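Re: [ENG-882] Designed sequences occasionally contain unexpected residues at chain ends

Forwarding the minimal case from QA. Structure tokens:
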């Protein structure tokens, strides 16, 4: 009897694959399993771990996407406060077409002891805000876990920089540690919506009055998916998120692709004025991924005719972001940050409005070099999302939309989210931001630049082929103040003349 019981052990081991093989032969969904029962499962296992295998064993330090290993490493090192220098020279091909480099000076300047700030607030703003050069870009509670929001906000509070809430509403996790907030309002008007999903100005005014809300921002579009609304899967919409967003629990939340409060450039400008008044004069602006230059010029015409402007405009690059998006949108729609930023800067300069509006740049800003490049391309300050996620522990697993984030950053699963230690990660956020801004100031000092306003397009060069290098001053047209009003250049004239402040035409 004892002898016969021992035989059941190997029999049980063999019985399981045998049963699996029978099932594979009978099922009709997977052709691979019908032809290769049992062994065919290896194909699906290898496919499941392919991203990890690619990231850890195949890709070189400089060819990973969306962020290569070198960039991820420098963020991790700065967040931990460890040495970020590398020996033996660059691994990048400096003679490859598209390679960019900044121009150093033979007369460097001392590095400033204090990081500069940017005063945000135009002539219609009564409560201007001093913005840091690098801030936390828009990421909603719901997309991120409560612990991730807490860590980001505490890091912002201790580091003296701003934290954009994203469009998912104003939660207690945004408010607990007292970090400066940019409250973002999207097409769903989460946190300030009526029962039918329209804008509730009373609720907006009450929340915008909170002492930690320093600016309010209207999201027109985002880089990863311009032209469609955001999606929060129902599995992430627990009771707490449903309460913050004022939506039904457990149901997938789809933001409309457009705003109900306005349908023309002039109405958009009027709604910005309305938001600023409801917010008690706090800086108010909008965020967009640039598409049609003609449409943006129509907004500029509306500003001129109404004699009012937003206090800031955040340009989001089509390089994507933390939110999940259809592949076709992420790969093919919208202007990359460089083109979008230069377009907005030039349009505002050419219409004489640049001095009234600050520009923020959001899109793959992770290093001091990224920050300096965006400033000389036309930005006044920058925002980072995915780099801040790296600082709180993100490993670029790219499972943000599945609720199975392995490090607790983009999940509402309590068991997974508890892995993110707020005390430790908030310090990493603070250290990363501080070290990156310091790196940008060191780079500017090496270029002979004492203030960010001295940066200019000729300070950045791009290699076009092995023998040709051009500066950004040569690669792009740069308008003179008021040039569109006086004598539009040929490349801009058609868009300028067709721009209509009362229609969004292309």
């Amino acid at each position: 009897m004892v002898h016969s019981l021992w035989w059941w052990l190997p029999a049980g081991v063999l019985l399981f694959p045998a049963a699996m093989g029978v099932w594979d032969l009978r099922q009709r969904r997977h052709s691979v399993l019908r032809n290769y029962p049992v062994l065919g499962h290896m194909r699906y296992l290898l496919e499941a771990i392919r991203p990890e295998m690619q990231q850890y064993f195949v890709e070189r330090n400089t060819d990973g996407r969306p962020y290569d290993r070198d960039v991820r490493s420098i963020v991790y090192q700065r967040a931990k406060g460890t040495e970020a220098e590398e020996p033996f020279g660059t691994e990048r091909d400096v003679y490859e077409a598209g390679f960019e480099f900044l121009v150093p000076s033979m007369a460097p300047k001392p590095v400033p002891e204090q990081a500069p700030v940017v005063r945000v607030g135009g002539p219609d703003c009564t409560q201007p805000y001093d913005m840091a050069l690098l801030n936390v870009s828009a990421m909603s509670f719901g997309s991120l876990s409560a612990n991730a929001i807490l860590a980001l906000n505490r890091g912002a509070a201790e580091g003296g920089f701003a934290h954009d809430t994203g469009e998912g509403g104003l939660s207690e996790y945004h408010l607990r540690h007292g970090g400066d907030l940019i409250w973002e309002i999207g097409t769903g008007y989460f946190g300030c919506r009526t029962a039918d999903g329209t804008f509730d100005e009373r609720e907006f005014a009450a929340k915008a009055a909170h002492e930690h809300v320093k600016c309010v921002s209207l999201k027109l579009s985002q880089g990863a998916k311009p032209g469609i609304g955001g999606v929060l899967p129902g599995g992430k919409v627990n009771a707490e998120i449903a309460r913050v967003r004022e939506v039904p629990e457990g149901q997938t939340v789809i933001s409309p692709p457009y705003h109900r409060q306005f349908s023309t450039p002039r109405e958009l400008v009027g709604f910005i004025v309305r938001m600023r008044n409801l917010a008690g004069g706090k800086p108010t602006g909008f965020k967009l991924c640039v598409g049609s230059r003609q449409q943006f010029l129509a907004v500029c015409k509306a500003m001129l005719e109404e004699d009012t402007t937003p206090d800031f405009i955040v340009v989001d690059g089509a390089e994507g972001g933390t939110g999940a998006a259809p592949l076709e949108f992420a790969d093919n729609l919208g202007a990359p940050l460089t083109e979008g930023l230069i377009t907005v800067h030039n349009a505002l300069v050419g219409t004489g409005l640049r001095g009234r509006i600050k520009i923020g740049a959001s899109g793959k800003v992770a290093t001091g070099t990224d920050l300096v490049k965006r400033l000389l391309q036309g930005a006044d300050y920058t925002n980072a999302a995915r780099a801040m996620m790296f600082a709180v522990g993100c490993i670029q697993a790219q499972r943000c939309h599945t609720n199975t984030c392995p490090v607790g950053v983009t999940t509402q699963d309590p068991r997974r989210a508890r892995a993110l230690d707020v005390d430790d990660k908030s310090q990493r956020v603070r250290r990363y931001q501080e070290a990156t801004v310091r790196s940008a100031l060191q780079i500017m000092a090496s270029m002979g630049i004492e203030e960010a306003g001295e940066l200019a397009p000729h300070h950045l060069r791009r290699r076009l082929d092995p023998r040709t290098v051009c500066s950004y001053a040569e690669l792009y047209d740069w308008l003179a103040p008021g040039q569109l009003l006086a004598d539009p250049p040929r490349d801009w004239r058609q868009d300028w003349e067709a721009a209509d402040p009362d229609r969004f035409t292309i």
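QA comment: On inspection the terminal residues look reasonable. The longest strand covers residues 213-219. Proposing we downgrade this to a documentation issue.
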